[in-house]
């Protein structure tokens, strides 16, 4: 077999849209396709403003600027996340404060957040792991109590909900990813969801290199100039054209991925009962998007053996993050709040299985190899 871990899904309309962008003669940012994608995101999430960016990393960096993060400030987040979650704030001179995760969802443990708050804390950055929502009601209550901002890292959570509310649109700001490893893709790409209206105008300015360019094109000012700090966070129109083809099929893509996820979940139930693995946990009030299907094996040695066995038959499975609190720069720029035992244990046990549209044609055979490798 030759089963990749990920295979980017194409709707068939991407090249047509790109040709249209070319014919329109607008290839820089904020053309018609960019606006179409932004309107779709605003309609689907309820965000006050959705701004496409060239990556979720860029959206996080914008959020850190909007939050006015200063040197010495602290931002609470999980250690079990991608480096961009921490880097966006470390670039501003802030200290990422790593809190342990829940053993069920692998999301930040909301019960540990309040104890990690100090006089320097400015924000909480929950990460919706595998498209399963963090306990946002509790997190927002803590933030409101202490006057903190909530910046959702919803990179993995497009089309997912918490108690009926789209992930990324619950906190003050949220960030999305359209990287080719995600469900809805544009190769590289992301978006900033500005949910608190007071940040919307400045978000536009930061995204356009610190200029009031958008106000100029709306006729609100007679010339545009440098008015704030910022950078070039816009994606090109070709990226947006690709993404526009994807979002037209977002519901269909999500349904197909959920079917594959559910097949894994059903077929691996007996192995879980036998104590060979643990399946993902999705709380009843969370509607996930089948971003990934992972299993937790008993220990690191068994995980290594499992990955090797499947590799030999041509099935590519992978582990995930090295916890940031154990990374060289995590120790240099951040600090752990406590020992983080759940984070350390889960990072050594987790394996992600192949999940991409089209896998369903060979999934039964893949599952048989998985079961034989346990």
For the largest sheet, list the strands in their spatial order: 1-9-8-5-4-2-3-12
Structural class: alpha/beta
Number of strands: 13
What sequence of helices (H) and strands (E) makes up the elements? Answer: HHEHEHEHEHEEEEEHHHHHEEHHEHEH
End-to-end distance, in Å? Answer: 18 Å
- Helical content class: 25-40%
Strand content: 5-15%
> Which geometry do the CA atoms define?
globular
Low-confidence stretches: none
Using the CA coordinates, give the radius of gyration.
21 Å
Q: Averaged pLDDT, please?
A: 97
Count of discrete alpha- or pi-helical segments spanning 4 or more residues: 15
Assembly type of the shown chains? single chain
Task: Describe the sheet with the most strands.
Answer: 8 strands, mixed
Q: What can you tell me about this protein's structure?
A:
- By secondary structure, this protein is α/β, with parallel strands linked by helices.
- The chain is built from 15 helices and 13 strands.
- The strands form three sheets. It has an eight-stranded mixed beta sheet, with helices on both faces. A three-stranded antiparallel beta sheet has the order 7-6-10, with no helix packed on it.
- Strand 6 and strand 7 form a beta hairpin.
- The radius of gyration is 21 Å and the shape is globular.
- It starts with 13 loop residues before the first helix and ends with a helix.
- The model has no long low-confidence stretch (mean pLDDT 97).
């Amino acid at each position: 077999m030759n089963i990749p871990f990920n295979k980017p899904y194409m709707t068939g309309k991407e090249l047509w849209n790109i040709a249209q962008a070319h014919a329109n003669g607008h290839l820089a940012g904020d053309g018609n396709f960019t606006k179409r994608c932004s309107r779709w995101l605003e309609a689907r999430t309820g965000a006050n403003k959705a701004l496409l960016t060239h990556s979720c990393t860029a959206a996080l960096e914008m959020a850190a600027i909007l939050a006015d993060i200063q040197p010495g400030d602290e931002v609470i987040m999980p250690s079990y996340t991608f480096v961009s979650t921490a880097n966006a704030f470390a670039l501003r001179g802030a200290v990422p404060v790593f809190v342990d995760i829940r053993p069920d969802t692998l999301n930040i443990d909301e019960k540990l957040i309040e104890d990690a708050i100090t006089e320097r804390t400015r924000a909480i950055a929950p990460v919706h792991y595998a498209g399963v929502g963090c306990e946002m009601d509790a997190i927002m209550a803590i933030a409101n109590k202490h006057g903190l901002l909530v910046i959702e890292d919803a990179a993995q959570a497009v089309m997912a909900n918490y108690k009926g509310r789209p992930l990324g649109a619950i906190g003050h700001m949220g960030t999305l990813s359209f990287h080719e490893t995600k469900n809805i893709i544009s190769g590289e790409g992301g978006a900033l969801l500005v949910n608190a209206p007071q940040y919307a105008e400045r978000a536009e300015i930061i995204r356009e290199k610190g200029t009031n360019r958008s106000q100029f094109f709306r006729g609100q000012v007679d010339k545009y100039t440098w008015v704030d700090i910022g950078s070039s966070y816009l994606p090109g129109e070709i990226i947006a054209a690709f993404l526009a083809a994807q979002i037209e099929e977002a519901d269909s893509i999500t349904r197909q991925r959920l079917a594959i996820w559910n097949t894994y979940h059903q077929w691996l139930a007996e192995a879980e009962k036998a104590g060979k693995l643990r399946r993902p946990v999705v709380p009843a009030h969370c509607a996930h998007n089948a971003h990934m299907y992972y299993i937790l094996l008993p220990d690191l040695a068994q995980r290594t053996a499992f990955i090797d066995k499947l590799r030999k038959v041509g099935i590519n499975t992978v582990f995930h993050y090295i916890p940031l609190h154990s990374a060289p720069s995590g120790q240099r720029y951040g600090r752990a709040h406590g020992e983080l035992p759940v984070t350390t244990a889960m990072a050594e046990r987790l394996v992600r299985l192949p999940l991409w549209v089209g896998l369903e044609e060979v999934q039964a055979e893949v599952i048989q190899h998985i079961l034989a490798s346990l």
